[in-house]
Design goal:
single chain, alpha+beta, Glutaredoxin, 5-stranded mixed sheet, 7 strands, globular, binds FE2/S2 (inorganic) cluster
């Protein structure tokens, strides 16, 4: 990974009038572990959380990409879900169940940091990339304006 961007800090004044210094970072990785993702007792695969934490620390992302383990991100039927914020874009990934996929995600993040600009995921991650937000212009898939009718059993 290229050397980090120069440190950037911002002074922000809270509602109570106290000014705090904030590190400005390059990206954020949100790993869902909410009501469905990782809930093995409900039949969902486990989230490889230890691998996310291990690689985040060992590969030196800590000051550049924040790792957040979060509650439900919304698209539960696609568990396990991961969201990446980078370069003003949002990347949603589904079915992130295995340690090898964690490596692919950090390899992808490393490519983004090295390039200093957004590009959509390629390789195995491309098949797991989906639209969630109307402004997810870079993500694949065709939108419908109507909800699919519910099939009668
Ligand atoms: S619990 Fe992960 S998307 Fe809802």
């Amino acid at each position: 990974m290229n050397s980090p961007q120069p440190n950037r800090f911002l002074d922000v004044t809270r509602a109570d009038g106290v000014s705090r210094e904030l590190r400005v970072i390059e990206g954020q990785l949100l790993v869902c572990q909410g009501c469905c993702c990782g809930q093995t007792e409900h039949g969902f695969p486990a989230v490889p959380l230890d691998e996310f934490k291990r690689q985040w620390k060992e590969r030196g992302f800590r000051l550049r990409v924040h790792l957040t383990v979060t509650g439900c991100l919304g698209p539960c039927p696609l568990a396990n879900v991961v969201t990446i914020l980078f370069g003003g874009e949002t990347v949603w990934l589904h079915s992130i169940n295995a340690p090898e996929q964690v490596t692919e995600i950090f390899d992808y993040l490393e490519r983004l940091l090295d390039a200093g600009t957004f590009e959509p995921p390629t390789g195995p991650l491309a098949a797991l990339h989906f639209n969630r937000l109307v402004f997810d212009a870079a993500s694949p898939g065709e939108w419908r304006s109507e909800k699919r009718p519910v099939a009668k059993a």
